[in-house]
Amino acid sequence: GRNDFVMMEVPGLLEGAHEGIGLGHEFLRHAERARLYVHMLDGLSEDPVEDYRMINQELEQFNPEMAAKPQLVVVNKLDVTEVREAQEDLQERLVEAIGDKGSSVQFISAATGEGVDTLLRNIVGALADLPKEELEEGPAPEPMHSRPQRSAGKESVWRAPNGVYVVESEMMERLTAMADTRDQRVLLQLWREMRKSGLADRLIDIGIEAGDTIRFGKVELTWF
Predict the structure, then answer these.
(1) For position 12, what pLDDT does the model report?
(2) CA-CA to 91 of 20 to 30 Å: which in 33, 76, 133, 221?
């Protein structure tokens, strides 16, 4: 049989997301309909175990049913020596933090591909274990944010004659339109998404500097 499924990426949550900190409510509502969570942890984070606890606390406080859903816990950056050397200790601490939730822990390297095929097989297996009626419940959600598979021409940056740097990106226009850009935590979250998408590097390549104005649709922000 076929093993088709829809996967969506939810940007990293800030502590307090369940109260609407950052873009928390938007991201959590988007994740609410997911049937399985793949919790991707940064192996170079100051404390990946605390990151795991924080995210699950946000899920619990936003909607307890979300925290009860099955999860696969994945630690990325296994290609980095520091992470590989800490793997055994980190695995033990994560298993202890997970407790009786039954979530598995896996280490991968997105950079080299190590462990990625196994992760995909584990995702397919976990989805296959879900009750059939749950898998057939409702249409697939429309992605709010992911790394869209689109041609480079559909995301563009340029400098307008008035000196404003214009970014044409459906994802960034959607995020900035819903964001409270007076909140520095929200701005940091937006910059993080720009770095992940490569848009920040493209703006730097065309000469953007601190204090310059960037336009996303109808929203203008100051580069810093």
Answers:
(1) 54
(2) 33
